[in-house]
């Protein structure tokens, strides 16, 4: 999967094409699950490209990669910029990878400017690839940024298991990502992430740059129905306890209830596991992952309680048992006001009219911000809002706009534009 020719230089289109080839399947998008062989190839391309550009590569114990530019020396504050190189199964090329590679190009350009005597940086910069942002293979998502910022204990993260029972520690080991290497930079004074919007808000507002002021809240409920395994043929109908039937009723009740009473909440039931999953056995256990997203925690609380009551009704009707295996509320985040204002200013100075907006999805920047690291999240448009799908697309002129704003913002931060105001 690694191609022979080495990649050098800060041409975003070239490195983006190189990265997009890793884990690509014709017509089926990109599959680069965290800690897979494809993730390993993406990590090597990133590290090789950055080190050829003069960066020092470090890696922490959860596998986060840091391409470090020690511009201002030891003891100077750090600024981070990045995103993630892992993807969903059959995901898009832009989600995450664009943010890492744009940050890499910005860093290389600024490094060249500094070497030419263009300006004197007062801090160091690291371009970061966070491990398992997507949460496709390992849950929870935002694993690397969660460990770095202290929200998730390292040992818990390394012990996470995928669907096949493979621990994250073993999967990282298998691709040669084993333990800390190099000198990992300390908590930064600022983190900036550039990401595709994954929605249609920017396009509908006819804007090219969005500055995210905060995120929606999310409530994630995992419901498991238990019935009784039985022969699908002779077992009398009155004796059956069908967990899949209960889950199906739970899903339709969830859809009807939320659509009727909370129509502006985003809702999904997107994963179903049934056991034993044989055509000749009445389903004994069905587990469904439900999700509600909205701006308001109180509404999510009310909707979540109504949903669980509907699940209980489906349980009674089918003679099954219900277990709420997980029920988590993710509070809405507010990005750093001062850093976001600087991002907006910078966008305007670059000739754009930034839209101040909210993100429905979570991102590494949100994990860091929630852990007290001042963070800003900048969006560029996604065509038709398509995300987590092979058709995900962002136009080249929007990519260039994002890179321009990111580079200018990192330049201001490197010059001390953030800490000087403290
Ligand atoms: Zn992403």
What key attributes describe this structure?
binds zinc ion, alpha/beta, Alpha-Beta Plaits, hydrolase activity, acting on carbon-nitrogen (but not peptide) bonds, in linear amidines, 422 residues, Bact_exopeptidase_dim_dom, globular, four-stranded antiparallel β-sheet, Aminopeptidase, Peptidase_M20
Topology of helices and strands:
Blueprint: H1 12-20, H2 37-52, E1 56-59, E2 65-69, E3 78-83, H3 97-115, E4 124-129, H4 143-149, H5 154-158, H6 168-174, E5 190-196, H7 201-204, E6 210-215, E7 217-226, H8 243-261, E8 266-275, E9 285-294, H9 297-318, E10 321-330, H10 337-349, E11 355-359, H11 364-370, E12 375-380, H12 396-414
Parallel strand pairs: 3-4, 3-5, 5-12, 6-11
Antiparallel strand pairs: 1-2, 2-4, 6-12, 7-9, 7-10, 8-9
Helix pairs in contact: 1-3, 3-12, 4-11, 8-9, 10-12
The site of zinc ion has 6 residues, from loops.
Strand and helix order = HHEEEHEHHHEHEEHEEHEHEHEH
Q: Provide a count of the helices.
A: 12
* CATH level 1 name of the largest domain: Alpha Beta
Major sheet size, sense and barrel closure: 8 strands, mixed
What low-confidence regions span 5 or more consecutive residues with pLDDT below 50? none
Q: What is the count of β-strands?
A: 12
How far apart are the first and last residues' alpha carbons, in Å? 47 Å
Q: What structural category do the secondary elements indicate?
A: alpha/beta
- Hetero groups: zinc ion
The CATH architecture designation of the largest domain is 3-Layer(aba) Sandwich
Helix content: 25-40%
Proportion in β-strands: 15-25%
Mean pLDDT rating: 95
Total of domains: 2
Which word captures the global form? globular
The name of the CATH topology of the largest domain is Aminopeptidase
The largest beta-sheet arranges its strands as: 1-2-4-3-5-12-6-11
| Radius of gyration from the alpha-carbon trace, in angstroms | 23 Å
Tell me the name of the CATH homologous superfamily of the largest domain: Zn peptidases
Pfam family, one: Peptidase_M20
Cofactor: Zn(2+)
Keywords: Hydrolase, Metal-binding, Zinc
GO molecular function, one term: hydrolase activity, acting on carbon-nitrogen (but not peptide) bonds, in linear amidines
């Amino acid at each position: 999967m690694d191609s022979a020719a080495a990649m050098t230089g800060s041409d975003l289109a070239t490195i983006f094409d190189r990265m997009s080839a890793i884990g690509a399947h014709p017509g089926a998008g990109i599959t680069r699950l965290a800690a897979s062989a494809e993730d390993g190839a993406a990590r090597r391309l990133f590290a090789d490209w950055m080190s050829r550009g003069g960066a020092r590569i470090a890696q922490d114990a959860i596998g986060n990669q840091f391409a470090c530019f020690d511009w201002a020396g030891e003891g100077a504050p750090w600024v981070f910029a990045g995103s993630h190189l892992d993807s969903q199964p059959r995901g898009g090329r832009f989600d995450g990878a664009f943010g890492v590679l744009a940050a890499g190009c910005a860093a290389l350009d600024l490094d060249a400017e500094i070497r030419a005597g263009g300006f004197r940086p007062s801090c160091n910069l690291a371009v970061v690839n966070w491990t398992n942002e997507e949460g496709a293979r390992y849950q929870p998502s935002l694993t690397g940024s969660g460990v770095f910022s202290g929200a998730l204990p390292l040992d818990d993260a390394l012990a996470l298991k995928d669907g096949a029972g493979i621990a994250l520690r073993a999967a990282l080991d298998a691709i040669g990502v084993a333990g800390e290497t190099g000198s990992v930079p300390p908590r930064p004074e600022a983190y900036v992430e550039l990401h595709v919007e994954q929605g249609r808000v920017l396009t509908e507002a006819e804007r090219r740059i969005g500055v995210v002021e905060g995120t929606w809240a999310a409530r994630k409920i995992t419901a498991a129905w238990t019935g009784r395994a039985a022969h699908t043929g002779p077992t009398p109908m009155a004796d059956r306890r069908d967990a899949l039937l209960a889950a199906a009723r739970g899903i339709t009740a969830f859809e009807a209830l939320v659509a009727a009473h909370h129509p502006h909440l985003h809702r999904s039931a997107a994963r179903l596991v049934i056991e034993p999953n044989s055509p000749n056995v009445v389903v004994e256990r069905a587990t469904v992952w439900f999700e509600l997203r909205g701006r308001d925690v109180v509404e999510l609380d009310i909707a979540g309680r109504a949903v669980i009551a509907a699940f209980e009704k489906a349980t009674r009707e089918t003679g099954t048992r219900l277990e709420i295996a997980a029920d988590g509320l993710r509070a809405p985040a507010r990005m750093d006001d001062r850093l976001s204002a600087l991002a907006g200013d910078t966008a305007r100075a670059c000739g754009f009219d930034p839209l101040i907006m909210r993100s429905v999805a979570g991102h590494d920047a949100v994990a860091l911000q929630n852990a007290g690291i001042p963070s800003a999240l900048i969006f560029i448009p996604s065509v038709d809002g398509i995300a987590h799908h092979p058709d995900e697309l962002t136009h080249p002129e929007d990519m260039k706009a994002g890179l321009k704003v990111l580079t200018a913002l990192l330049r201001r931060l490197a010059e001390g534009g953030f800490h000087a105001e403290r």
